[in-house]
Write a structure and sequence with these properties.
The complex is a heterodimer of chains A (864) and B (108). Chain A has 864 residues and is an alpha+beta fold. Chain A folds into five domains: 2-70, no CATH class; 73-123 and 334-476, no CATH class; 128-324, no CATH class; 479-516 and 732-864, no CATH class; 533-715, no CATH class. Chain A is 54% helix and 17% strand. In chain A, 39% of the residues are buried. Chain B is of the alpha+beta class and 108 residues long. In chain B, strands 1-3-2 form a three-stranded antiparallel β-sheet. In chain B, strand 2 and strand 3 (73-79) form a beta hairpin. Chain B is elongated. The chains are: A alpha+beta (864), B alpha+beta (108). Chain A binds chain B through residues 1, 3-4, 7-8, 21, 24-26, 28-29, 31-33, 36, 54-57, 60-61, 64-65, 67-69, and chain B through 25-27, 30-31, 44-47, 49-50, 53-54, 56-59, 62, 65, 68, 72-75, 80, 82.
C-alpha cells in the first residue's frame, strides 16, 4: 500500500517523466513485436503494420492507461480547468457574481474586525469571572459609594480575595503649553494585582508602601497618551508631568489595551483614601473586589454586607450588591448597536449569496444540453453535481481574494470616519489580522456553499428524454429550477424588506433626534471652558480681574453681543448630584433622581433664551440657598403645585425656590443623559470656569476667540472653545452613523433584490417569447401581455414582502434601544417601506414587460 | 465467448501467474500467455497494459524502468507480497468456481 501511495504521488509530481516512461514502455513492446513478426517471416513493413494493429492503437492504449492511473485529484483538476474555461466564456455574469460575493465577504470581514476589536477580545485579567464592582444598595434602589473604612474592612474580609478602588474622573493635562482634558482614575495601589495580568511596558506599577508613607503624587500613564502627548519620550519614567496644575511623577507606562475602570481612562494616580489632597478630600472609593474562590456568591455578599455595616453605621439599611466586570468597559451605545449592525451585515450577506445563487442556477439551466450529453456518456449525477459545484468554488475563491481587498478598504474607511473615542478602545488601529482572515475564509466557504449547492443540485436534475431533443433550444427551465429561482427571489425580497424597515426606523430616529426640542437656542452661541488656577491666580479678586479683561477683549470681536460667566454649560451642567431629593410637599417626601446643577448669573437665562415662567431670577439681596428650578424638577418634587417659595434639600444642603424656568433637554438615545436641572446663583469666577458668548449674525471663529482670551491674560489656560451646536451634535453623531450604515445596507439589499428580479424576469420573458408571439397573433393586446409579465413579478414580490413584513415585525423589539420617537408600528415607516419596494418591483419588471410587448409575432413564428 | 467480467478476472489471474514465475516486462508476459493459453483465450494487447497499470495502482505488482537486452528501456513488473496473497486467493476462487460449473453441467 505504501508503494501504491508513492506511485500516485510520483505520477502527480512528475507528469512529464511518467508520460515519457509510458512512451518508452509501449515503444519497447512494439519493437519486440515487430522483431518477432520479422522472425516469423513477415517483411518489415508488414511486420510493422501487424504489430500496430495488434496493439490496437497507441493513443487509445495510452488513454486507457491514463484512465486507469487517474486519481481523484486529476479529475478534480480537470473540473477546475473546465470551470475556468466556462467562466471565461461568460465574463459579464462571472464579474457580477464575483463582485457580489466579494462585497458580501468584504463587509462581513470589516464588521468582524470592528466587532472583534470592541467586544470579542477577552477581558485581559486573571479569572475575570471572580471580579466584580460592588456598591451599597438602599431599599429604594439607590446606589451609593462606600466609605474608606468599609473598603478597609472588605480588604480584610475572608470572603473576598482583595478589594481595591478606582474612581474615574477628568483631569487637565498641561503639556507643551496646551491644556487637554483626559480621563484619569484615582486608584488604590493594589488594584493592578487584584486584576492580574497587567504588566507595564516601561517602569513599574505602584508600590503600596510608598502610598502608605504619604507619597501620593505617583502616576501611571497609558501608552496612548505617552505616544500622543509626550511623543514616546524614552525618559518618561521619573519625569514630572503637570496634571491639574500639579507636578506628578510618572512611575511607569501601561499598554494601550489596558482600559480600566472606564474606556477613556489613560492616567492612573495612586491614592490612599485616608489622606487625599485638596478637593478630593471628600471622595469616596468605588470598590472593585475579587471574590474568594471557594465561597458561594450569596454568602460572600452577605459577609460583605455585615462588614460594611460594622465599619460604617450609615449602611444599616443597605446591602452589598455586585456587578460583573466583564463587559463593563464598553460604551452602552455600542453594546446595543454593534450586535444589531452585525445582524444587518449577515442579512446583506445572505441577500448577495441568494442573488449569486439564482445567477448560477440560470446559467446551469441554460447548459442543460451539455449536462445531458455528459450524463448520456456515463457521468453519474454525483459527478455532475461536483462539476457544477467546482464552478461555484472557483467563484468563491475569486470572491475571497477580492473580498479581502474590499474588507481592507472598508476598515481603512471606517478608521477615518469613526470618532477618535471609538478608536481609542481598539487594540491595534483596526487592522485586518489573522483572525479577520480566518473569518474571511470561513465566510467565503459559507458563501460558496450557500450560493453553489442549490444550483448544483437543481441545475443538474435532468429528465433524460426531453433534454437532447433538437427542438429544445436549451432555454427552457425544469419545474424544479423555476421553483428554486422563485424561492430565492422571495427570500431576497424578504431580507431586503426587513433591512429596509430597520433602516427607515434608524433614519427616522435620527431625524427625530435632530429636530428634538432642546429648550434653549443653541444656534449662534460659542462656549469656552477655562482654567484660572494658582499660582497665577491665587485668589478670587485676581480671577475676577482677569475675567473682566477677558470679557472686555472678547466683547470687542465683531458679532459678539452678550457674554455670561457660569459654572456649568448646557447640556451637561456644572455638577451632577445623584441620590435622594427631599421636598417639602405634603405626602411626597423623597424622590430619587440625577440632577444637573448650574451656577449662573441672571443674564444667563436671557443669553440662552430660556424663558422665565414664574417668579424671578437672582438678585444680590437673595439669601443663601435661593435657586431657580427647571420645570421638570418642579414637577418631580411638587407635582401639580406652584413651586415658588417652596424648599427642598439634598444631603445636608437646603434650597428654596425663587423662580421657575422652562426645562432644557439634551436629546439623546441614552435617556439618562437628559436630566432635570436647577440653577444656583453665581458666586464669582472659580478656578475652573465657563464663558458663554451669544453672537450674531455671524459668529467669530473659535480659534480667534481663543487667541483673544489668551491675549487678554496669558496665564489663563483655555481648555476649549467651541460652538454649542457642535456639543449638542455629538449626541447625533452615532445615530447618524447608524442611520447611514442602515441606509447603505438596505440600499445594497434592495438593489441586489431588484437586480435579481430584473434578470429572472428578463430571462423568463426570453423563454416565453414564442408563447407571447402566439398570444399576440391570436389577438392579445400589448397591454395584456405586459400585464402578464408584471403579474409574475408582483406575485413573487408580494410573497417576499409579506414574509419580510412578518420577520421585521417579530424582530421589532431588537431595534427598540436604538430608536428615538418611533416604534415598529409607526405607519409612516411602513408606508415608505412598502411604497419603495412596490416601486422597485414595478421598475424591475418594466423593461422585461416592454420587451415582451415588443416581440414581433411574425419574426418569432418564422424562426421555427 | 466468455463474458467480459470473467475475462478481466481471468486476465488478472494470468498476469499474476505469469509473474509468479519471475519478473517480466509487458511483452514478455504477453508472449508467455500466448504460449500457454494459445488460441482459446485471445487477449488483446491493448488491454494488457491498462490491466498491468491497474494492478500496479492497486499495489498488487510493482514495476521499475530498466535497460533490457540491447540497451532498450523497458518497464519490468514483479509480484509483491500482496500480489502473492492475491494469487493464492484468486486461484482458490477459480477452482471452486470451475468445480461448481462442472457439477452444474453434469447435473443437466
Amino acid at each position: 500500500m505504501f508503494t501504491a501511495i508513492l506511485t500516485k504521488l510520483r505520477s502527480l509530481l512528475q507528469r512529464r517523466r511518467v508520460a515519457r516512461e509510458m512512451d518508452d514502455e509501449l515503444r519497447f513492446h512494439l519493437e519486440m513485436e515487430i522483431q518477432s513478426n520479422i522472425e516469423r517471416g513477415f517483411p518489415p513493413t508488414e511486420a510493422r503494420r501487424l504489430a500496430y494493429r495488434d496493439l490496437g492503437g497507441v493513443a487509445q492504449t495510452k488513454e486507457a492507461i491514463r484512465d486507469v492511473r487517474m486519481t481523484w485529484v486529476d479529475s478534480l483538476w480537470q473540473d477546475v480547468r473546465c470551470a475556468c474555461r466556462s467562466l471565461r466564456r461568460r465574463p459579464g455574469a462571472t464579474v457580477a457574481a464575483v463582485a457580489m460575493l466579494a462585497l458580501g465577504i468584504g463587509i462581513t470581514t470589516a464588521m468582524f474586525t470592528i466587532v472583534d476589536a470592541l467586544i470579542l477580545r477577552p477581558v485581559p485579567f486573571r479569572d475575570p469571572n471572580q471580579l466584580a464592582f460592588v456598591w451599597m444598595r438602599s431599599a429604594r434602589g439607590g446606589r451609593t459609594t462606600v466609605a474608606p473604612a468599609v473598603l478597609h474592612a472588605w480588604q480584610k474580609s475572608p470572603a473576598l480575595a482583595g478589594a481595591e478602588s478606582a474612581v474615574p474622573d477628568t483631569a487637565l493635562v498641561q503639556v507643551d503649553g496646551t491644556v487637554v482634558a483626559r480621563g484619569i482614575a484615582r486608584v488604590t495601589p493594589g488594584l493592578f494585582d487584584l486584576l492580574g495580568g497587567v504588566r507595564p511596558i516601561r517602569g513599574r506599577l505602584f508600590d503600596a508602601s510608598e502610598v502608605r508613607a504619604g507619597i501620593n503624587d505617583r502616576v501611571l500613564l497609558s501608552e496612548d497618551i505617552w505616544r500622543s502627548l509626550y511623543h514616546a519620550d524614552p525618559a518618561i519614567v521619573g519625569r514630572a508631568v503637570s496634571i491639574d496644575g500639579k507636578p506628578l511623577v510618572v512611575v511607569g507606562v501601561l499598554p494601550s489595551d489596558f482600559r480600566f475602570p472606564s474606556w477613556n481612562t489613560v492616567i492612573w494616580r495612586a491614592v490612599d483614601f485616608g489622606a487625599l489632597p485638596g478637593s478630593a478630600a471628600n471622595e469616596r472609593p468605588k470598590a472593585y473586589v475579587r471574590f474568594a474562590p471557594n465561597v458561594p456568591r450569596a454568602d460572600a455578599l452577605r459577609i460583605a454586607t455585615e462588614a460594611a455595616r460594622g465599619a460604617d453605621r450609615t449602611n444599616a439599611q443597605r446591602w452589598a450588591q455586585a456587578e460583573p466586570l466583564a463587559g463593563l468597559v464598553l460604551d452602552p451605545y455600542y453594546q446595543r448597536a454593534v450586535p444589531l449592525l452585525s445582524g444587518g451585515v449577515i442579512l446583506v450577506f445572505l441577500v448577495l449569496c441568494a442573488n449569486v445563487s439564482s445567477l448560477l442556477l440560470a446559467r446551469l439551466t441554460a447548459r442543460r444540453r451539455e449536462f445531458s450529453m455528459r450524463s448520456a456518456i456515463g457521468a453519474s449525477r454525483g459527478r455532475l453535481i461536483r462539476q457544477a459545484f467546482v464552478e461555484s468554488c472557483v467563484l468563491g475563491v475569486l470572491g475571497v481574494v477580492a473580498g479581502i481587498g474590499i474588507g481592507w478598504a472598508l476598515v481603512s474607511l471606517s478608521r477615518t470616519f469613526l470618532p477618535e473615542a471609538f478608536l481609542l478602545r481598539t487594540l491595534n488601529p483596526l487592522n485586518i489580522d489573522l483572525r479577520s482572515l480566518a473569518v474571511t475564509s470561513v465566510s467565503g466557504v459559507v458563501a460558496t456553499l450557500a450560493a453553489g449547492l442549490l444550483p448544483a443540485w437543481v441545475g443538474t436534475r435532468l429528465a433524460p428524454d426531453t433534454s437532447l431533443r433538437v427542438t429544445d433550444r436549451g432555454g427552457t427551465e425544469t419545474r424544479g429550477a423555476r421553483a428554486a429561482t422563485h424561492a430565492l427571489l422571495i427570500g431576497e425580497l424578504a431580507l431586503a424588506c426587513t433591512l429596509l424597515v430597520g433602516a427607515t426606523l434608524l433614519v427616522r430616529s435620527f431625524i427625530n433626534l435632530a429636530n428634538a426640542e432642546r429648550g434653549l437656542d443653541v444656534r449662534g452661541v460659542l462656549v469656552s471652558t477655562m482654567s484660572l488656577s494658582p499660582p497665577a491666580f491665587p485668589n478670587q479678586p485676581s480671577r475676577a480681574m482677569a475675567a473682566r479683561s477677558i470679557e472686555e477683549q472678547v466683547g470687542r470681536l465683531p458679532g459678539v453681543r452678550h457674554v455670561a460667566w457660569s459654572y456649568g454649560l448646557p447640556p451637561d451642567g456644572g455638577a451632577i448630584s445623584f441620590g435622594d431629593w427631599r421636598s417639602d410637599a405634603p405626602g411626597t417626601p423623597m424622590v430619587h433622581m440625577d440632577v444637573d446643577r448650574y451656577s449662573v448669573g441672571p443674564e444667563f437665562f436671557a443669553l440662552y433664551g430660556i424663558p422665565l415662567l414664574r417668579g424671578r431670577t437672582f438678585e444680590p439681596a437673595d439669601r443663601e440657598g435661593a435657586v431657580v428650578v427647571g420645570e421638570r424638577l418642579a414637577r418631580a418634587l411638587w407635582p401639580g403645585v406652584d413651586p415658588i417659595g417652596r424648599s427642598f434639600s439634598f444631603l445636608e444642603a437646603r434650597f428654596h425656590v425663587i423662580g421657575l424656568v422652562k426645562e432644557i433637554h439634551h436629546p439623546s438615545l441614552d435617556a439618562t443623559l437628559d436630566r432635570p436641572e436647577f440653577y444656583e446663583p453665581f458666586d464669582g469666577v472659580g478656578s475652573y470656569t465657563m464663558m458663554s458668548i451669544r453672537c450674531g449674525p455671524v459668529c467669530p471663529n473659535a480659534a480667534l476667540v481663543r487667541q483673544r482670551i489668551v491675549a487678554a491674560h496669558p496665564a489663563v489656560q483655555v481648555v476649549d472653545v467651541q460652538a454649542l451646536e457642535d456639543v449638542y451634535f455629538e449626541q447625533l453623531a452615532r445615530p447618524r452613523a447608524a442611520a447611514a450604515l442602515g441606509f447603505a445596507f438596505a440600499g445594497v439589499a434592495v438593489l441586489a433584490a431588484a437586480g435579481g428580479l430584473f434578470s429572472v424576469l428578463s430571462y423568463a420573458v426570453g423563454r416565453r417569447k414564442r408563447e407571447f408571439g402566439i398570444r399576440t397573433a391570436l389577438g392579445a393586446s400589448p397591454g395584456q401581455i405586459r400585464r402578464l409579465v408584471l403579474r409574475d413579478g408582483l406575485m413573487v414580490a408580494l410573497t417576499g414582502i409579506l414574509i419580510g413584513t412578518v420577520t421585521a415585525w417579530s424582530l421589532g423589539r431588537a431595534l427598540m434601544s436604538l430608536e428615538y420617537g418611533v416604534t415598529i408600528t409607526d405607519p409612516l415607516t411602513w408606508t415608505v417601506v412598502l411604497g419603495l419596494l412596490g416601486f422597485t418591483t414595478v421598475a424591475a419588471s418594466w423593461r422585461p414587460a416592454r420587451q415582451a410587448m415588443r416581440a414581433d409575432p411574425v419574426l418569432l413564428l418564422r424562426e421555427e | 465467448m466468455p463474458k467480459t467480467e470473467y475475462l478481466q478476472g481471468a486476465l488478472d489471474l494470468l498476469i499474476l501467474k505469469t509473474l509468479a514465475l519471475g519478473p517480466n516486462h509487458g511483452w514478455g508476459i504477453q508472449q508467455r500467455i500466448r504460449q500457454v493459453a494459445g488460441e482459446a483465450l485471445s487477449v488483446s494487447q491493448g488491454s494488457l497494459y491498462p490491466a498491468l497499470h491497474r494492478l500496479e495502482a492497486a499495489g498488487i505488482v510493482a514495476s521499475e524502468m530498466t535497460a533490457s537486452e540491447n540497451n532498450r528501456k523497458a518497464r519490468v513488473y514483479r509480484l509483491t507480497a500482496a500480489g502473492r496473497r492475491r494469487l493464492e486467493a484468486e486461484t482458490a476462487d477459480w477452482h471452486l468456481f470451475s468445480l461448481a460449473i462442472r457439477r452444474l453441467l453434469q447435473l443437466a
